[in-house]
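note to self: dont lose this again. the chain is below, predicted strucutre after it. 317 aa total, dont forget to put it in the shared folder this time
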Amino acid sequence: MKTEITRMLGIQYPLFQGGMAWVADAKLAAAVSNAGGLGLIGASAAPGEVVEGMIREAKSLTDKPFGVNVMLMSPFADDVARICAEQGVKVVTTGAGNPGKYMEMWKNAGIKVIPVVASAALAKRMERAGADAVVAEGCESGGHIGELTTMTLVPQVVDAVSVPVIAAGGIADARGVAAAFALGAQAVQCGTIFVCAEESPAHENYKNLIVKAKDTETIVTGRNGGAPIRSLKTKLTRKLAKMEHEEISLEEFEKFAAGSLRKAVQDGNLEEGSFMAGQISGLVSRIAPAKVIADELMQTSEALLKNLVAERGITFE
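---
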């Protein structure tokens, strides 16, 4: 499948790997890029020198395009933004803020800038700021989420902007990809399925929780503080959900949750870890190499799109 996004970025598949904090490291990003998609390094709140080290490592592992997801609220965002330009990163995706202050620097460095958005209004602002495309991420996704579902968000963003739209949230198989294209997307972004890639640094406990998950096994916490997060149901997330209904300060809530994602990814701590994952966890049935995940997803999607009407027994009279 060739789309405006594959032509813009020089990639084989219209497939992005999500820039997940603590999970999207150089090895995973390079593996996805080598598989034909666009791998992303998740800068999260890491210092500039750490991100630079990951960029250099990814360059040693792939000669294909890859990108960096820059969290604009990070205290190190200025350094990370500069390093992306200096290192010649091909693509930057952004979240948690407006990338306008970095746009000229990135554009002068030849970087394609693709913000993640959760509303049509934000997509319009990003286009005005100079974005080359946007990722419209629905609330089915893991981690920090907005309010709109992918099914409702993507077509409204497609109608609101003239730049290409990448659909994200709730996509893990050919049916999800086909639906995203039907909604007007030019590519898809997947996160949860790549947590379960063999190259992912996520602890085996993390991967196994996703593989064993059923359709109802995610929960959203943090709504009261204005920063909702979707994770798998665990002892920690059930406690956090309970705390939100108690008279507890935001500071106490955040202190209780602090470091929980690192504990999940690095330690596999089933008691204190926050295992962020999307609602499609119930569709993820195995741990596999990134290339196998990407090839199966894209090739089955292509076949489905070509034969959709015939396979579904649809006729027109």
